[in-house]
Design a protein that fits this description.
Chain A: Keywords: Cytoplasm, Initiation factor, Protein biosynthesis. Chain A: It is found in: Cytoplasm, Cytosol. The complex is a heterodimer of chains A (about 450) and B (about 425). Chain A has about 450 residues and is of the alpha/beta class. In chain A, about 20% of the residues lie in helices and about 25% in strands. Chain A has a seven-stranded mixed beta sheet. Chain A is elongated and about 85 Å long. The termini of chain A are far apart. By secondary structure, chain B is of the alpha/beta class. Helices cover about 20% and strands about 25% of the residues of chain B. Chain B has ten helices and 31 strands. Classes of the chains: A alpha/beta (about 450), B alpha/beta (about 425). The interface between A and B is medium-sized, with 26 and 25 residues.
Chain lengths: ~450, ~425
């Protein structure tokens, strides 16, 4: 049976924008409401009807990722590929590693980043892609405004938003540049302006890193002779290149675009033999790009990329409200049945408790997310915080608005902090606005 | 102190028509007739503006001209317009009809000078519509004025609303480079963020958008080529800005100045890009021919060629299939080779003539086998057999000999007698009186 689309999840990212969290855990396995982050795009693909997904992970993670399917009740088969992190790979390098895994017969390739949490119906995106004959469809959504303040030291880094320019009305993508890649001016080329339709330039729309590409375009991206061979990042480099190719004039002698793959006489023979019902399949590699049709699918609903500390925090805090939206039709519950909550513990309604966790008496948990296999000892006050998996909180701790990924073994007060290393906690101290992590050994 | 009485000034809707427009048609034409009275489908250009303004309920129109030889003609024309208003019963909303006031000045060479003069004479009392004399428009002006007033009420600093035509409104045939502009408009507030005239000496055709505009203003709509029909709704601040800055000579310089000095002065300009409606500017001879073609094609409905704008009576017969209009007294056999033509009174056209998209004035004679394409022919012209005219302007009482081929873009002044079997150079302008050939 001819498969129509194949999905690739890029999970090899090192999480450069949240380094305090990703030193020990790869970004894709960070917990988001008691589930690893990677589950969300996988579930999205499962909902859209995919039964097989290719996942690209960094070295050493294939075991953990491979086990995820049984652990979390996903119904997709994972085909895990490994990319070496020796030379700081970009997303394009990940794709090149798994080029061989893409089946020859697929029409479309769906590329998703592992940190995407959204409630879009992927089937709608694919439908629009096919019905409008697009070669590339990019999922866009309004940039989420995040009201929660993340823990840790106050940072002034203001990340620039993506700038996306579409033709007003038709949604055709004419210009895209990733945040951080532009300074004061954005230059639109004259060939772009010649299309003469009103253009909508928006800095409040984000590129959600979900792309549906036609097979020939995907081959072009992986082709060693195309200009994409030097590009490392899919979103920041390859995508703007593809979009700008819509307007460059590649006059090819061959109207059929056969360019060397099939000789002219061979072609004529085939046509004669099959009565002109021969159509050149575009599965051969192209070194030159013919003008692709690039569209955007604008999703006004929830769409957040959990690749910065701020968005990750925001998602965790809001996961109890959003869970059914982004993870529909699953048996996963926010208050896991195997969690043991002793009667005299006060756990608020909007808190999330993972499986195998034990919450002892006289604790007060408010608006928090507690991971799996945790142990909350008595007399702990936990508010507006997020706990990872396997975290033990010693008795008497007071934790507020913090992200705890390692056990807190000594009684202390922690406010607005990020804790990733247990050894940094000392008895009886108050920590406020710090990042308690293991320092790197330079020895 | 006497209590401050609420003086409720009647909001008189005013319009200013600039008749001494920046770009003239050039000498052979404007020697006889001022540009605003040049005929477009056998109706003077000014008539279209005055007629439409009256239908819109504008109460006072100020026609601003240079004080030259044509001033009296324009004055006469406007006087006649107002007298006609007295005779015929106007079906307009306003009982008084349109009052036309002709203001002239000696050394007025640009829009800026005109504005400064009007400001000095304190003739403008509030918001007004600014039109160029060669614009033919059927846009909904009262609605635009209301929108302007609303935006002014919301934000005191919105001093002007520019009107442009987007893709849907105007097909690019008449849009020359100088009349289109690249615009950046904020999507939420309609504020004009960047304005650049296309063509001319534009160094680069790339558009650089400063990213701070995007962060501040939200989404931006970019119009790569919006057609500028020179229709603007201005508030009373605009003439005072002109008088403060002596180097502002055109509206473009004012727009540029306001946008650049937005932090200093705090003024903003709103911009409306319309998709429907018709507005065309007959700035040059080529665009005159183009706009004439569009009017003949009934795009400027209800201003149509068969109804005389002066007398409001049907003056021409009209064949909708070929878009031809002809006067009852014209000897005009409708051949199959004739499309988009307006034929004036008493004109004789031979059956073998080919006519396309032309306007013929009164009392012309066209011989056998004459081919006339996209031209404007004035009154009393005699074109002998086998001549060819293409995209040209032929003045009054010109006699063209046999077999004359007039290349595109030529202007033949009134009274000329180009001899037989001559070919003229493209864009050659022949003055009248002394026959040049």
């Amino acid at each position: 049976m001819r498969q129509e689309a194949q999905a690739i999840v890029l999970a090899a990212g090192p999480g450069m924008r949240m380094t305090s969290l990703t030193s020990h855990t790869p970004k894709c396995l960070l917990p988001l409401g008691t589930l690893p982050m990677l589950c969300y795009p996988l579930h999205l693909l499962q909902q859209a009807g995919f039964s097989e997904v290719s996942v690209v992970v960094s070295e050493g993670q294939e075991q953990r990722v491979g086990k995820m399917v049984e652990q979390y009740g996903l119904k997709v088969d994972l085909d895990v590929a490994v990319v070496s992190t020796a030379h700081d790979p970009g997303t394009a390098d990940s794709l090149r590693q798994i080029a061989s895994k893409i089946k020859r017969s697929v029409e479309e390739v769906v590329v998703i980043s592992s940190d995407l949490v959204t409630d879009v119906a992927l089937q709608d995106v694919l439908d629009q892609h096919r019905s409008r004959g697009a070669d590339l469809t990019m999922l866009t959504s309004p940039t989420p405004s995040l009201q929660t303040t993340p823990p840790g030291p106050k940072s002034k880094t203001h990340l620039n938003s993506d700038i996306i320019c579409t033709e007003a009305g038709s949604g055709r993508l004419v210009y895209a540049v990733a945040g951080g890649d532009y300074d004061e001016c954005v230059t639109l080329q004259s060939s772009l302006l010649n299309c003469a339709a009103p253009l909508l330039l928006s800095a409040s729309t984000q590129d959600a890193h979900l792309y549906v590409m036609k097979r020939w375009l995907f081959d072009y991206v992986l082709n060693k002779e195309s200009p994409c061979a030097d590009m490392g990042s899919l979103k920041a480099e390859i995508l703007p290149h593809i979009v700008s190719c819509q307007f460059t004039d590649h006059s090819s002698n061959d109207k059929l675009g056969l360019s060397g793959a099939v000789e002219r006489e061979e072609w004529d023979d085939l046509v004669k033999k099959y009565n002109s019902s021969v159509v050149p399949s575009r599965h051969h590699s192209l070194a030159h790009l013919q003008p692709p049709v690039c569209l955007t699918f604008h999703h006004p609903g929830l769409c957040v990329r959990a690749n910065t500390l701020h968005t990750y925090w925001h998602l965790n805090r809001k996961i109890n409200e959003l869970f059914n939206q982004v993870y529909p039709n699953s048996e996963w519950q926010l208050r896991h049945p195997t969690a043991v909550i002793i009667e005299r513990a006060q756990v608020s309604e909007d808190s999330v408790v993972g499986g195998g966790t034990m919450v002892c008496e006289k604790t007060n948990i408010a608006s928090s997310v507690v991971g799996k296999h945790c142990r909350i000892n008595p007399l702990v006050r936990l508010s507006s915080s997020v706990l990872g998996d396997h975290v033990t909180l010693a008795s008497g701790c007071v934790i507020e608005n913090s992200l705890i990924l390692a056990s807190v073994e000594r009684k202390c007060v922690i406010k607005n902090c990020i804790v990733t290393d247990s050894n940094k906690i000392e008895e009886g101290k108050t920590y406020s606005g710090e990042v308690l992590e293991a320092t790197q050994d330079f020895a | 102190m006497a209590p401050k009485a609420e003086i409720h000034e009647e909001q008189v809707l005013q319009a200013v028509i600039l008749a001494q427009c920046e770009q003239d048609y050039g000498d052979p034409v404007t020697q006889d007739v001022p540009k605003v009275l040049a005929p477009l489908a056998n109706t003077p250009l000014l008539e279209y503006s005055l007629e439409w303004l009256e239908r819109c309920g504008v109460e006072e129109a100020i026609v601003y001209c240079r004080a030259d030889t044509h001033l009296e003609t324009i004055r006469e024309h406007c006087r006649a317009f107002m007298t006609r208003r007295g005779d015929t019963t106007p079906a307009t909303t306003h009982p008084g009809g349109l009052r036309v006031n002709v203001v002239a000045s000696e050394d007025c060479h640009s829009l800026g000078d005109a504005m400064r003069d009007l400001y000095a004479k304190s003739l403008l009392k509030g918001d007004f519509i600014l039109l160029q004399g060669d614009t033919v428009t059927t846009l909904d002006l009262p609605a635009l004025v209301t929108e302007h007033r609303e935006s002014r009420a919301a934000d005191r600093n919105a001093i002007m609303t520019c009107v442009y035509m987007g893709e849907g409104g105007k097909v690019g045939t008449t849009a020359e480079k100088t009349t289109t502009a690249t615009l950046l408009v904020s999507a939420s507030t309609n504020k004009l963020l960047l304005h650049r005239r296309r063509g001319g000496r534009s160094t680069s055709s790339r558009l650089s958008v400063p990213t701070e505009l995007l962060q501040g203003a939200g989404d931006i709509l970019a119009y790569p080529a919006a057609y500028d029909p020179s229709v603007t709704i201005c508030s009373e601040v605009v003439p005072s800005l002109f008088s403060d800055n002596f180097d502002y000579s055109t509206l473009d310089s004012l727009v540029r100045g306001v946008i650049e000095q937005e932090e200093l002065l705090g003024y903003t300009i709103k911009c409306r890009v319309l998709e429907g409606g018709y507005a065309g500017r007959a700035a040059s001879i080529n665009s005159l021919i183009g706009v004439s073609g569009e009017v003949v094609g009934r795009q400027a409905y209800p201003l149509v060629p068969e109804v005389s704008q002066t007398s409001h009576r049907v003056r021409y017969h009209h064949d909708a299939f070929t878009h031809t209009y002809w006067d009852p007294s014209a000897k005009f056999p409708k051949g199959s080779m004739v499309t988009g033509v307006v034929v004036g009174a008493g004109t004789e056209v031979s059956p073998t003539a080919h006519l396309q998209n032309t306007t013929l004035g009164d009392h012309c004679t066209l011989g056998d086998g004459v081919v006339v394409r996209e031209s404007v022919v004035m009154t009393g012209v005699c074109v002998k057999a086998a001549s060819k005219l293409e995209q040209c302007w032929v003045g009054d009482n010109v006699v063209l000999g046999e077999g004359v081929v007039v290349a595109p873009g030529c202007v033949i002044g009134a009274g000329g007698h180009p001899g037989g079997s001559r070919r003229s150079r493209p864009r050659h302008q022949a003055l009248c009186a002394a026959p040049p050939w």
